[in-house]
């Protein structure tokens, strides 16, 4: 038919990649592809800047560490934009480990970078060094351990297929939700005590919280009560991934320069502010 572009011999698992009657799959692909390319472009720009900062035309220290933190964050955002494809494609033995592992790890790294940046700003006393990216990696590593342990228990110890209930999937993300909650609360507290933290950063975290509340509610209760479970489960997660990816991409990288300020009566480092502004 006019709206069936998949072909009769296509595996049903890939049907949403090309079915025009199920437009959510195609819309998600377009938006995630665009977001992924933008994130990748920003990441490459940061890496080039990093080489300059830490090379002959720059100096090591807080600027190199800031580049590292921003690169980690953009790497996580790029991964978030790539992940919806594993949900557009049906659940298989190949996509299941990808979903379980990367969903929590990528969001864990993104929220860990935000939390580490908030903590660095609150405790800023001159040069922050490499504590910030180190803290972000350490916080994200916890989610890596959680995901790997679950995969080992299910697929190695129990020798079973990779499968999960929606409730079990949510349980695997509790630590990520803690990171998001702590980052949001500290940001709100910091907003009340410093003019250097702008409303856009708070809105980024609050919108992320709202997106998580909505998709978790739909996944655990809403879809079942509406009679659309499990047909709506993967679309809900795919749309949530895409939306949160764009929130992080638009709300954070363009405002990293704000964190170059540590108010202690005056802005102590105008050079840091000039450096962060390259992301604008």
Automatic annotation (TrEMBL):
It comes from the Eukaryota. One of its GO terms (molecular function) is protein kinase activator activity. InterPro entries: GPCR_3_C, RA-inducible_GPCR3. It is found in: Membrane. The chain crosses the membrane at residues 23-52, 64-88, 100-121, 133-157, 169-192, 199-216, 236-259. Residues 18-251 form the G-protein coupled receptors family 3 profile domain. Its main location: membrane. GO terms for cellular component: extracellular exosome; plasma membrane; receptor complex. Keywords: Membrane, Transmembrane, Transmembrane helix. It is a multi-pass membrane protein. Belongs to the G-protein coupled receptor 3 family. This is G-protein coupled receptors family 3 profile domain-containing protein.
